[in-house]
Amino acid sequence: MSRPVRDARRRIENEHPDIVAGISHCADHVAEPWDTARTTDSDAVSKRLQSALEATGLLEQLPLVLADVVAAMGYELRAQPVPAPPYVVVTSRGPILRATIEPGRLVVRFDAFEVVRDDDLEQPPAYRRRDGIRLDISLR
User: Fold this and answer.
1) Using the 8-state DSSP alphabet, how is residue 95 labeled?
2) Cβ distance 122 to 114 under 8 Å?
3) pLDDT per residue over 75-101, tens digit each?
4) Beta bridge partners of 107
5) How many domains does the chain have?
6) What angle do CA 57, 71, 94 make, to 5 degrees?
7) Which of 4, 20, 79, 99 has a 20 to 30 Å separation from 37 between CA atoms?
8) Alpha helices in the chain (DSSP H)
9) What's the domain of life for this entry (predicted)?
10) Count of H helices and E strands in the chain?
11) CB neighbours (10 Å) of residue 29?
12) How far is Cα 98 from Cα 108, in angstroms, rounded to an integer?
């Protein structure tokens, strides 16, 4: 793990634990009505998660987290991020923050759901709620 990626992870863990906890709470809300531990409806996962993040005000805060993380890494954003693509995208795994900075493309994933694939390739992938949030940060 590179130093800028470590700095980004440390910044989120130390300065934004409420955001991570809020994303986790929203993901719990998304998974609550499922009859089983998983669903194959990726659109329902991403749309319900987006709605929950909007309702709690977290979606509006994610660009601020991105700007703070980039600053903690010692870089600057080329533009002010907004809570929409390309900076913030809500997927069936969870929210993703993206920015192009001097050394490359920064991607911060808050994985709230994991993809579960069946041995039968004809079956669609399923989405299962993770235990907490898995933070994945890359700089390419």
Assistant:
1) E
2) no
3) 999 999 999 999 999 999 999 999 999
4) 98, 138
5) 1
6) 40
7) 20
8) 3-15, 17-31, 42-56, 58-72
9) Archaea
10) 4, 5
11) 15
12) 6
